[in-house]
């Protein structure tokens, strides 16, 4: 993942609800469409849609490699 702003399609492989300093976060494992390697990221649920599940196809908007918004597709 590179560039300041970009949009890409990912598939969620694993989703865990976690707490960091008593604030809710998701820890996700994902695969970028067309790639085989897995990526991992922790993100604020406010930047994601409700109740993400493994297998979801997601269009994500990134700024400097961080998810700023996500929309479930398909």
Protein described:
- The protein has 74 residues and is an all-beta fold.
- The chain starts with a strand and ends with a strand.
- The protein has a five-stranded antiparallel sheet with strand order 3-2-1-4-5, with no helix packed on it.
- The chain has strands at 5-20, 23-32, 38-43, 57-63, 66-73.
- It contains no helices and five strands.
- It is globular and about 35 Å long.
- The protein has a single domain, classed as OB fold (Dihydrolipoamide Acetyltransferase, E2P).
- The chain is 0% helix and 64% strand.
Percentage of residues in helical conformation: under 10%
N-C termini distance: 23 Å
Strand content: over 45%
How many DSSP E strands?
A: 5
Q: Provide the succession of SSEs.
A: EEEEE
Quick one: CATH class?
Mainly Beta
- CATH A-level architecture: Beta Barrel
CATH topology: OB fold (Dihydrolipoamide Acetyltransferase, E2P)
Query: What is the residue-averaged pLDDT?
Result: 91
Instruction: Report the total helices.
Output: 0
Tally of individual domains: 1
Unreliable spans: none
Based on Cα principal axes, name the global outline. globular
Task: Give me the Rg, rounded.
Answer: 12 Å
> Main sheet?
5 strands, antiparallel
- Strands side by side in the biggest sheet: 3-2-1-4-5
Which structural class best describes the helix and strand composition?
A: mainly beta
């Amino acid at each position: 993942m590179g560039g300041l702003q970009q949009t890409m399609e990912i598939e969620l492989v694993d989703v865990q609800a976690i707490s960091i300093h008593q604030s809710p976060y998701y820890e996700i494992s994902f695969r970028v469409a067309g790639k085989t390697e897995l990526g991992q990221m922790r993100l604020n649920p406010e930047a994601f849609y409700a109740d993400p599940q493994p297998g979801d196809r997601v269009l994500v908007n990134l700024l400097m490699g961080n998810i700023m918004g996500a929309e479930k597709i398909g």
